[in-house]
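Researcher: Here's a chain I'd like modeled. Treat it as a single chain, no partners, no ligands.
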Amino acid sequence: MWVHLLRHGIAIDPTDPACPTDPERFLTDKGKARVRFGARGLKALGITPELVVTSPYVRAQQTAEIAREELGDVPLVESDLLVPMAEPSKIVELLRARGEQNILCVGHSPNLDLVVAHLIGADEPVTSLKKAGAASIEIRHGRPGAGGGVLVGVYPASALRLLGGGAD
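Model: Modeled as a single isolated chain. Structure tokens:
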């Protein structure tokens, strides 16, 4: 099983007077463009999810929709297990309940870095995904669980954009 984790793109600055509440923060035009080229970079790497699971926060939903446009119109599931402060071990329950073998999870920091650590059995985060950055984990021992995965790739957003045909 493959689990790919994609952090949302650049969203409206929380200090902007026009900024809505955190769950309603949306991607900027620059954020949308960078996510699109980043998703194309994931496609160039051969990442083809069968399912996208996303945080219900607007910026993550927008990122997930752009990824689906670029990676294939696959089913989309929302999950509170991918919000910024969610317990990282809980996403394992959702992954175990699914039959797909290639899943893209779209979410936030610090949650995604904690999910990576949990899946590979690390006590502390070993990644620091930047906006529109990604990581891939292969679950080699059947079903996902603590320590059952191998971190196969960490993809900086700038590298994904270059692979996807975009400039920085």
